[in-house]
Amino acid sequence: MLNQTLSRLRCPRCKRSLNLELKNPSQIRGSDSIFDIRYGTLICAPCRARFPILEGVAVLVKDVRFYLLSHVKGISKLVPDSEIPKEYRSEYLQAQEEIQEEHIEEDLEAERVNALYLMNHYLRVQKSSDDLHPSWWKPSKEEGSPLMDSLVREYWDQGPFSQIERWVSQLKGASRKGVDLVELGCGVGGLYRQLQSSLSSYLGVDSSFASIALCRHLALGGPYRGTLRIPEDLLQGPVSREVKIPVHQCKGGDVDFIVGDLENLPLQSGQWDVSVALNTIDMLNDPIKLPQLQSELLKKGGIAIQSCPYIWHESIARKLRKKLPSEISTSARAVEWLYQKAGFQLKEKLDHLPWLFFKHARQLEIYSVHLFLAQKAMTRKLSN
Ligand SMILES: C[S@@+](CC[C@H](N)C(=O)[O-])C[C@H]1O[C@@H](n2cnc3c(N)ncnc32)[C@H](O)[C@@H]1O
Ligand SMILES: [Zn+2]
Q1: Residue ranges per domain, the chain?
Q2: pLDDT greater than 50 at residue 384
Q3: Has domain 111-376 been given CATH number 3.40.50.150?
Q4: Nearest CA to ligand 1 atom 3
Q5: Which of 42, 185, 259, 312 could be stapled to 280 by a disulfide with Cβ–Cβ 3.0 to 4.6 Å?
Q6: What is the Cα–Cα distance from 243 to 262, expressed in whole angstroms?
Q7: Residues with Cβ–ion distance below 5 A, ligand 2
């Protein structure tokens, strides 16, 4: 975690604390005024809660013990056991022994799942002839699918990131200064790279340790063990093709990524021009909270950007249906209504934007995402 990020944070437990102090930092590198803390502990003065920084990743969650035990797969690939806080270490080591190889898509600490997002966030079709991974979507040892090839060529570079890039660059143009942007559920952090020329600051938050470590590696040159690999033919293993993604070394102190939980967000309110949450609302236990959260983070008149293919779990959809007016019967209208109720005015939207998700040389998923940009009221909150 960069020292300058501290001023953006608050305690995820008592919230009232604006004063997280750093104790026992170690392995600091950088200049005198901006440095990256690889190991240390953030301590909340009022409630005395302690939050570890492990390999540069600040873990700002309400229940640190539960987090370390349930994210052991991602953490143990990067963090030496000796750096796990003593009070949790024996349970953590036990959890390590129980790690399983899973074939499910939901495991956001798994290498394969991160690899899928890595492709989605960082690999492009137009630029891929130049370079390090030519035609990465085609199998290397046989003819690929002509249909997959034409879909990838037509749609891959035209997904949500490109549209958001246009919007954020317009916002920058209108304000004539860089945009302060916070991203909730940032995954492996590729949106930052796409938007960086329009930004004056960026903070990404996600609950996956493996994803945040990757973000920090690619954007800040943070430590990362192992090679970056993507799937090709699963006979060769879940991720068999190495890719070289250029590592940036952002020198300023105004870009960072932290582990946090959207249900107990460790961030100060009212600091950002734009808050973005892509493909995340349907993963939350209480989706109604997302627009409220985005609103809280924004300055007056700030902009929320939201997208999703709305793959609701039925128990969440059931709860949501109970809250909606009878005339609203689709996911897109429901989520627009939630944002309006939280005091936003919809300014731009696309009802169906194709978003391709490459799984391997014989599997390509097509999502149709609803993407919109909404503005927070300039004056007081409108909803009750
Ligand atoms: C479907 S992925 C989308 C990632 C990225 N925004 C994108 O569009 O490619 C959802 C992301 O939200 C994160 N996430 C899910 N629930 C979360 C929570 N309660 N707090 C923080 N992050 C969460 C996941 O770890 C994952 O990276
Ligand atoms: Zn506290």
Answers
A1: 111-376
A2: no
A3: yes
A4: 279
A5: 185
A6: 31
A7: 11, 13-14, 17, 44, 47, 49
